């Protein structure tokens, strides 16, 4: 499917964001906005967003964040800070929603956020920071704290990028693969990032939350989604096995069934 682009303000300049609408003709149905993982992009989702929207009769929006896919690349000398996910959630995402007329008072209405990994964390931060901006969120393998297993696996990914064909495989999904990889990898392995933590934000979540984790996730443990439930008791948990860090690839059918039911049960309007 062909991508479109929209310009948004971010960090004092204009950046270009790649995006695709899915099933826009279903104007009266919920809009699901997909937030990709730390090395993801529009194309790296493959066919899951469309299949998911067809299963639930939803509309969808898929986009590549700054530094990923066909969006504006991160300059190689630009280092992301510990707050990079907070900035995506509080600055870049609202700017994108304004540009595409998404929101309670806009033509597309309030969205559901569907985030994977870093995208799940961004969904949590956005929903906690702007409680009235979304109908609900579904988060797959989200991070709310930095665990040893996360750092160890990300360090292993760094070695694979330098020593195997991982770089060439990822290059199919990004205009500037080194920009995408090192922006993500460098900050996650920065010792200062070990203090990154979302616990203080979680009680601010007011919307319905479905939190999903694979029992074999190599980047995080059940402490991630159980922590969300502890601080935001309205959270429903879905634990999948056998399943690694990507439930939408490892267990697409049970994930789709559960998430479609959850969205339909908690959407503020259904027509």
UniProtKB/TrEMBL annotation:
Keyword Plastid: no
InterPro entries from the UniProt entry: AB_hydrolase_1, AB_hydrolase_fold
PANTHER family: ALPHA_BETA-HYDROLASES SUPERFAMILY PROTEIN, HYDROLASE
Alphabetical list of SUPFAM superfamilies matching this protein: alpha/beta-Hydrolases
The protein's Enzyme Commission number: 4.2.99.20
Annotated AB hydrolase-1 domain residues: 32-255
Broad EC category: lyase
Protein name, as recorded: 2-succinyl-6-hydroxy-2, 4-cyclohexadiene-1-carboxylate synthase
GO function term, MF aspect, one: 2-succinyl-6-hydroxy-2,4-cyclohexadiene-1-carboxylate synthase activity
Keyword Ribosomal protein: no
Swiss-Prot/TrEMBL keywords: Lyase
């Amino acid at each position: 499917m062909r991508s479109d682009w929209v310009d948004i303000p971010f960090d004092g300049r204009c950046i270009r964001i790649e995006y695709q609408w899915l099933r826009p003709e279903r104007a009266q149905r919920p809009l699901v906005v997909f937030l990709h993982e730390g090395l993801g992009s529009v194309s790296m989702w493959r066919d899951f967003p469309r299949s998911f929207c067809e299963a639930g009769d939803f509309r969808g929006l898929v986009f590549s964040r700054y530094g990923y896919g066909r969006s504006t690349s991160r300059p190689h000398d630009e280092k992301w800070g510990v707050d990079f996910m907070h900035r995506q959630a509080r600055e870049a995402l609202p700017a994108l929603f304004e540009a595409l007329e998404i929101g309670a008072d806009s033509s597309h209405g309030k969205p559901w956020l569907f985030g994977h990994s870093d995208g799940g964390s961004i969904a949590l931060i956005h929903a906690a920071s702007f409680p009235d901006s979304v109908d609900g969120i579904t988060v797959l393998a989200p991070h709310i704290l930095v665990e040893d297993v996360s750092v160890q696996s990300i360090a292993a990914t760094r070695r694979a990028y330098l020593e195997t064909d991982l770089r060439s495989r990822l290059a199919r999904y990004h205009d500037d693969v080194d920009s995408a990889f090192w922006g993500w990898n460098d900050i996650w392995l920065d010792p200062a990032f070990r203090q990154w933590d979302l616990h203080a934000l979680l009680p601010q979540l007011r919307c319905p939350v479905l939190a999903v984790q694979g029992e074999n996730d190599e980047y995080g443990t059940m402490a991630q989604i159980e922590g969300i439930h502890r601080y935001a008791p309205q959270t429903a948990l879905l634990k999948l096995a056998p399943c690694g860090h990507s439930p939408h690839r490892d267990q697409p059918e049970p994930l789709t069934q559960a998430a479609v039911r959850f969205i339909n049960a908690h959407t503020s309007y259904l027509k």
